[in-house]
Write a structure and sequence with these properties.
Protein name: Histidine phosphatase family protein
InterPro entries: His_Pase_superF_clade-1, His_PPase_superfam, PGM_Phosphatase
Number of strands: 9
Binding site for substrate: 11-18, 63
Pfam family, one: His_Phos_1
Distance between the termini: 30 Å
Strand order of the largest sheet: 4-5-3-7-1-8-9
Strand content: 15-25%
GO molecular function, one term: phosphatase activity
Oligomer: single chain
CATH topology: Rossmann fold
CATH architecture: 3-Layer(aba) Sandwich
Largest sheet: 7 strands, mixed
């Protein structure tokens, strides 16, 4: 392909919540020591590939933000201060700071659309703790494959909508030649990928910590309605759920 828009979706490294098997949701868990090592391994892997980003997006939750900062520091890119905001609000763009002389830098754009599932009253609990605190709810969740709305949690429709908003705005904002990192969470990544691929369903993807999903898009032809929509030279999945850097 000639010059294209390259998207690299990255799941955050292991958090303390992952270690403890907690349903993290919007809980602000930090990276574990293992997670920091995972992020450093990924950074070296991407550095060896010269996968330098032109733009970086991240969930503002600590486990994603810390992963992003470790990745950028290994590329000797000083993360600039950025405003935690809705990506779709142009007035909430991250602000620029002074860049050290002769040192490349890039601003991290924190987007609330990239946060993990907002799981309401289950936030931060282990399943055992949830069963003790909310036995009837947990029995219902265990008994049925159908979606059961958790009190104070977002709906599936709301989650898919924010994924759609993010992908739509990303495509509109960027052009061929841009190279994007998008650092997020396993659950919402499923919906982001489904939106990018144009699927009307969200599919289960068991993404491990620091797993990579890379897509190449001919941005100049994205909105065409011709047979180019089916031309796989223009829309490529370059890697999917790749975590070989941890082996």
């Amino acid at each position: 392909m000639s010059k294209v828009l390259k998207l690299l979706f990255i799941r955050h490294a292991q958090s303390t919540g992952n270690q403890q098997k907690r349903m993290q949701g919007h809980g602000d868990f930090e990276l574990s020591s293992t997670g920091r090592m995972q992020a450093e391994k990924l950074a070296q892997y991407l550095l060896a590939e010269s996968w330098h980003p032109s733009h970086v997006y991240s969930s503002p939750l600590k486990r994603a933000a810390q992963t992003t900062e470790i990745l950028l520091s290994s590329f000797q890119l000083a993360p600039l201060p950025a405003t935690v905001s809705d990506l779709i609000d142009p007035s909430a763009e991250s602000s620029s700071a002074e860049i050290e002389e002769k040192r490349p830098a890039i601003a991290i754009r924190y987007a609330n659309e990239l946060k993990e599932f907002q799981n309401g009253i289950l936030k931060g609990l282990t399943w055992s703790e949830a069963r003790t605190r909310y036995p009837e709810l947990c029995r219902r969740l265990e008994a049925s494959p159908d979606w059961i709305q958790i009190p104070e949690a977002e709906s599936l429709h709301d989650a898919r909508t924010r994924a759609r908003q993010f992908i739509t705005h990303l495509i509109e904002r960027h052009t061929d030649g841009d190279r994007l990192w998008v650092v997020s969470h396993s659950w919402i990544l499923q919906h982001l990928i489904a939106e990018l691929l144009g699927s009307d369903r969200s599919w289960r993807v068991r993404a491990g910590n620091t797993a990579l999903f890379e897509f190449w898009i001919d941005r100049s032809r994205w909105h065409q309605t011709s047979q180019n929509r089916f031309n796989t030279d223009l829309w490529q999945i370059r890697r999917f759920n790749d975590s070989r850097h941890l082996s």
